[in-house]
Amino acid sequence: NNNSPQFPNSKASMLGMVGGGQLGRMFVHEAQALGFKVTVLEPEAGSPAAHAADVHIQATYDDAAGLQQLADSCASFTTEFENVPAASLAKLAETGFVAPSAACVSIAQDRIEEKAFFTRCAPQTGILPAPHAILRTATDLENVSADLFPGILKTARMGYDGKGQVRVKSLDELRTAFANLKGVVCVLEKMLPLAYEISVLVARGADGQAVVYPIAENVHRDGILFTTTVPSPHVSADAALKTQNAALKLIADINYVGVLCIEFFVLQDGSVVVNEMAPRPHNSGHYTIDACVTSQFAQQVRAMARLPLGDVRQHSPCVMLNILGDVWFENDSNIERQPEWHKVLALPSAHLHLYGKAEARRARKMGHITFIAPTLEQAQDEMQQACAILG
Ligand code: ADP
Ligand code: MG
């Protein structure tokens, strides 16, 4: 029976994870802490999750033999990134419980479907996506409303950390940028006057019970998440309630099982716009490992195993700082150095997480630090000190 719980520390305690990145690694840690075992399907050798997993199947995400081996060894399956082929998840669903489902993941794989979903639910949520146009062919460009400039051209699929995005001020710039993408389907979004950005992390169990975490406030640099602060210093009680309720409505609408993170923009006039969603734990939810009763990864484990979700209560104010590969390099040089972790770890509120990636590269997520302190001010202050140490 697909709805009966999968028990840890039993013969059937193997969980299947598609993807081997840091999200998979943190999932493995939480799964093992709960007494589960994990098999990771990941083509790369020595990936962050494969290092931690009980079993690593080294195969591509659509490899029939690899998927069969995964299917044979696990009773439930999840993924750590949205670009897993939907057909792979559908295959795993033939023999086991897949959370989130292929149908839910496929919405989040495509900005066009995602925006259509948000728009369809807007009568219930009261929140719309940014004004946008869908660009499939060069002729579509000529029909773009002048009101969408200045705008951001985004590839409909496979974008992350600001990749696949070009800012365009005019139709001319749009033509050039679109041509450079060589026929990839895109979305042109109006550039909005953001006051700040927030995300809402929700989880929903197989029994339909859902939980919502506090609002996380996110600062991005060069399109990549830089810090997450919880509680959000800026969000009003109204906007918090509105976005949390919207997240709960969205997750229920598609009968989603698992962890989902929804990004929102709060504009300078106070209005709220929904940006995108991730069908998995999210970088802005890493703080839950150190600052909440139940982390987003533990919820992912519980949801796929059809166990009750845990308490989302936050017990300490916190700031999460992402560690990019840049801190391994001095200023603009290519000379690699060791970041001064001993100084970071001397900060009393710093919880350091490194993902075990063999090679540091600029703009590559290598780890994060969560600062959890008695007051948000102290956490923020120590985050600033860590930034100064890491240079
Ligand atoms: P990704 O998939 O790379 O996270 P996003 O759509 O979330 O792509 O965009 C990355 C960042 O770019 C956002 O967090 C925000 O800071 C900025 N951004 C994206 N779209 C807009 C927009 N329409 N107006 C203003 N800023 C935007
Ligand atoms: Mg984003």
Domain unit count: 3
Report the count of strand segments. 19
Structural class by SSE content: alpha+beta
The percentage of residues in β strands lies in 25-35%
What does the overall shape look like? globular
CATH structural class of the largest domain:
Alpha Beta
Task: Describe the fold and architecture.
- The chain has 391 residues and is of the alpha+beta class.
- The protein has three domains: 14-98, Rossmann fold, CATH 3.40.50; 131-190, Dna Ligase, domain 1 (2-Layer Sandwich), CATH 3.30.1490.20; 194-390, ATP-grasp fold, B domain (D-amino Acid Aminotransferase, Chain A, domain 1, 2-Layer Sandwich), CATH 3.30.470.
- The protein is built from 13 helices and 19 strands.
- The strands form three sheets. Strands 6, 11, 12, 13, 14, 15, 16, 17, 18 and 19 form a ten-stranded mixed beta sheet that branches.
- Helix 4 (86-93) runs antiparallel to helix 5 (102-109) and helix 5 (102-109) packs across helix 6 (111-125).
- The chain starts with 13 loop residues before the first strand and ends with a helix.
- The model has no long low-confidence stretch (mean pLDDT 96).
- It binds adenosine-5'-diphosphate and magnesium ion (MG).
- Magnesium ion binds at residues 263, 276.
